[in-house]
Amino acid sequence: MSTANSHYYLPNPSPWPIITSAGLFALALGFILLMNNVSAGPWFMLAGTAIIVYMMIRWFGQVIGESESGTYNAQVDRSFRWGMAWFIFSEVMFFAAFFGALFYVRQFSAQWIGADDLLWPGYDGTWPTAGPKGLIPVPAGTIPGANQFSPMGAWGIPAINTLILLSSGATVTWAHWGLLKDNRAQLITGLFLTVALGMTFIALQAFEYVHAYTELGLTLKTGVYGATFFMLTGFHGFHVTMGTIMLMVILGRAIAGHFRADHHFGFEAVAWYWHFVDVVWLGLFIFVYWL
Amino acid sequence: MSADHHAEHPTGISRWLFTTNHKDIGTLYLVFSFIMAIVGGVMSLVIRSELWQPGLQLVEPNFFNQMTTVHALVMIFGFAMPAFVGLANWMIPMMIGAPDMALPRMNNWSFWILPFAATLLILSLFMPGGGPAGGWTIYPPLSVQGGIGVDFTLLAIHMLGISSILGSINIIATVLNMRAPGMTLMKMPMFAWTWLITAFLLIAAMPVLAGAVTMLITDRHFGTHFFDAAGGGDPVLFQHVFWFFGHPEVYILVLPAFGVFSQIIPTFSRKPLFGYASMVYATASIAFLSFIVWAHHMYTVGMPMAGELFFMYSTMLIAVPTGVKIFNWVSTMWRGSMTFETPMLWALGGVFTFAVGGFSGLMLAITPADFQYQDTYFVVAHFHYVIFGATIYGLFAAIYYWLPKWTGHLYNETLGKWHFWLTTIGFNLTFFPQHFLGLAGMPRRIPDYALQFTEFNRWSTIGAFFTIISQLIFFYIAIRAMKGGAKATDQVWEGADGLEWTLSSPPPYHSFAVAPKVK
Predict the structure, then answer these.
(1) Which of A62, A224, A230 best probes binding to B when mutated, by most B CB atoms within 10 angstroms?
(2) Is B233 within 8 Å of A100 when comparing Cβ atoms?
(3) In the prediction, which pLDDT does A202 show?
(4) Which residues of chain A lie closer than 8 angstroms to B6, CB-CB?
(5) Residue from the list B2, B156, B211 with its beta carbon closest to the beta carbon of A94
(6) B110 sits in which H/E element
(7) Domains and CATH numbers, chain B
């Protein structure tokens, strides 16, 4: 292993990937067993998660060490950038599958089910719907009675959350400007604010879920409305959680003195990811909550 | 640009477990894929044995359906895709003048997910209630109703998808960032081009499959109603999401084989590839079109007329760029001084059989005609002509073409030709009669059939055994060439052109420690 700057860095053989794969296997197997009520399931999942988390710490730790010791030249940096960009694109396509399902159900299939009175008499398929056999929707903001659910309105917590995420996009950009100007205080303050806004978002989202389950009669099982609502917002919330953890790592690294104005791929990767969850949220706000 | 050298060279098993070297990882991919090919091949023999005569003789219908399902999943996700990722690993750095892949540790990771995922997939067969039996397309409601074996399959698909996405990210980063100075995109070998576009397709399509699989899992265990009409969902929704992945998947399987044909045909015609730029644009057009044709797999689900027409016309449009490719291959051979070594035989055979599969694809694209062919053996014949006839022919062509480069030894040319001709006879014997079976109305995925279908089924079964036994020749040839034989020169083939032929045979551990200059 050489550290000369003109060379493309080729890492030594590494045990991390195969151990991570084994962790993934344990996690998947545990999840299968859990879903089928086998008591060993959670233990396998726990072991798998522990392996993956430990491996991420070691693997990323090694990469951070290599990066800070100047092992990576500009070309390696570009490889990382392409890698992260295409990873985010794959995430976009993952969300596209669920958005596609939402549009298809709303625009086509729910109306088709409702169109023929022979099939489900009295069901018209208007959105939001929990289906002909599901709960009956009442207008948002009303307290649902028995056999009813109320969809999530847009102008309460979701609107506040939109503001929070948009502001966090601004604070992370402000932090980036600080890094480019070598203003460490601005970098750290900006990142800290972003982390705080991310955590506020998650807390409000959790509050909203509790509200949905306890007061609106809206759960994952509330027909196709509940399924699309919770799967889209749930996967988004999971991504915000991951993004917040990534921002916390970056904040810690910034405090430890990592990153230079001309060498901070780690920061930018997380910032890109954060903007990505931001944009997904805008799609959610418009198509899941508002329209 | 030059490359650093490894400080460590582990030997023995840890060399393979921990490797970050593109050639080692390419070899792992290829070895893994051929192990899976044997597994999937045995399953196909179970299917064909049961179909030797009408009535039920060897296996239970449920087990038969598990065999058709898992055969397809193993062959697609375990054999065809990893084999071509293996070729990409081996060849792309050598073809574009790079020391290695762009992200070597992730490269190792994307491989080592595969054996674990395959374990889950195979384990599903041994679960109470058996493996998935609803076809590889895992349509609900069957895939929602199945037992724990279906969960094993679904999680295996998730892991296989992660592996594919990581591998594709690596290939794109390598092609875009690791080319030798002077190698512009439009000077790149066609194999690198087709893989660049394939990798894009994978990154766009695999997450959509992950979404579909996730919805199945939540419908199965967490009470969602995506595919349940009583809850406002729709089983056809799954088919839309699945085929949004599934149709690009077809081109994921076939485009790298087209890249192989585009490398081999010029070599043995001793002429540069005809219409290089049009080949690139045709590949990109196929990739684009592959995202707007998906519902041609589901003409019979009751789509509105406008949908049927849109998907019929967009599907038929694919014939245009595909025709451009075939025209270019033929024009490359026109007035070339051609020779017919084994790789050329496989490439030409692949173009022929792909053309057959392409034409039967056009027949299937015609909506009213497809109402007749839907879910018959005609479809089975069609996609085996494409996947075996183009993808696997392309794989064998590539292996014979580059084996002397990889091993440093020439393989036995006579035996190679035997392998080609016996496989070609066996393959056509297996699948050509299935066209007639399908047109006559024999449905796919069924262990029993009407008496009048017996004769064609017998030909098909004989062909299947003939084909698979013929593959023993290939294993013998490959292992012999790895162990020794006549030394190969650096260029290996008289007409071969490209950076990989400037390296020694076998090539050094790091392909291009110093980047070559490309004029």
Answers:
(1) A224
(2) no
(3) 98
(4) 1, 10, 12-13
(5) B211
(6) helix B104-123
(7) 22-233 (1.20.210.10), 244-409+481-507 (1.20.210.10)
Q: Which residue has the tokens 């066996």?
A: B426
Residue A44 C-alpha, separation from nearest chain B C-alpha, in angstroms: 14
Average pLDDT over residues A139-159: 91
Catalytic residue among B24, B50, B100, B500: B100
- Best of A6, A58, A94 to disrupt the B interface (most B CBs within 10 Å) is A94
Listed residue (B469, B451, B403, B438) closest to B26, CA to CA:
B403
ipTM summary value: 0.95
The Cα–Cα gap between B269 and B336 comes to 5
**A191 plus A257 within the same structural domain:** yes
Q: What is the dihedral of CA B114, B116, B120, B126, to 10 degrees?
A: 120
Q: What is the pLDDT of residue A4?
A: 39
Rg (CA), chain B: 23
User: For chain A, how far is it from start to end, CA to CA, in angstroms?
Assistant: 56
User: Measured between CB atoms, which of A12, A101, A134 is closest to B215?
Assistant: A101
Domain boundary among A19, A44, A72: A72
- Looking at every residue in chain B, the average pLDDT score rounds to 95
Q: Which of B22, B179, B325, B409 is catalytic?
A: B325
Residue A66: Cβ-neighbour burial (10 angstroms; 0-12, 13-18, 19+): middle
Summarised one tens digit per residue, pLDDT across range B14-55 is 899 999 999 999 999 999 999 999 999 999 999 999 999 999
Asked whether residue A129 falls in the same domain as residue A31, the answer is no
Between CA A1 and CA A274 the distance in angstroms is: 34
Burial level of A260, CB count in 10 A (0-12/13-18/19+)?
exposed
What are all long-range contacts of B310-317, with beta carbons under 8 Å and residues at least 24 apart?
Answer: B311/B367, B312/B365, B312/B366, B312/B367, B314/B289, B315/B365, B316/B362, B316/B365, B316/B366, B317/B289
Number of neighbours of residue B335 by Cβ within 10 angstroms: 9
Are A68 and A78 part of one and the same domain? Answer: no
Task: Give the E-state strand segments of chain A in sequence order.
Answer: 7-8, 136-137, 148-149
Q: Which residues contact B137 (CB under 8 A, 6 or more apart)?
A: B239, B242, B246
Of A32, A94, A223, the CB nearest to B152: A32
Secondary structure of residue B2 in the 3-state scheme? strand
CA distance A109 to A115: 10
| Chain mean pLDDT for chain A | 94
Domain that holds residue A193: 74-290
